[in-house]
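Hey, I'm writing a tutorial for new members on how sequence and structure tokens pair up, and I'd like a real worked example in the thread rather than a made-up one. If someone can provide the structure for the chain below, I'll link this post from the tutorial.
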Amino acid sequence: MALDKNGIAKRIAQEVNDGYYVNLGIGIPTLVANYVRDDISVEFQSENGVLGMGPFPFEGEEDPDIINAGKQTITTLPGASFFDSAMSFSMIRGKHVHLTILGAMEVAENGDIANWKIPGKMVKGMGGAMDLVASAENIIVAMMHTNKRGESKLLERCSLPITGVGCVKKVVTNLAVLDITSDGFVLRERAPGVSVEEIVNATAGKLHVPDTVPEMNI
């Protein structure tokens, strides 16, 4: 059975290590903070100027003045700090973030990512993704494997405007976990109940399938 958005976030949370500073992009990535293990210390950073984000608040406990980059209300952990965008992007551009987790519209087999604009649709701007993909050493993408029409979002080449070139290391979708290597996508894990054949059929880019592909442990 394919994962939902929370399932994707839960699997990505396993990639977060003790002591990491992690930037969470808009969309599915914001859910990752809900699933990080309690026995590790992680600092979540939001580009609008927050360091030390916690899980989403329970209903009725929201503070409208404490939000993430996607304008969602959040909680903060003891020791959290707030600062302006200049300081936030100094952290990002200065490579002080260990892991960046982003959503995407498309990812190419060479690690290109398109996640900021669909031609013909109005957008407010490119946001901070350009800085994140240019500066981060480790980028994981959280996304659905196909679009609403059932077309693959894991492509040979991105068709939408590019956000960053050759920067994505790993993709976690509702169907699979895939590494990106110099020779294309490599299938590492399957979502529970999802077959290798389903993943192959849903992937338009070059996909290497090992002899054994275990199910995700979530």
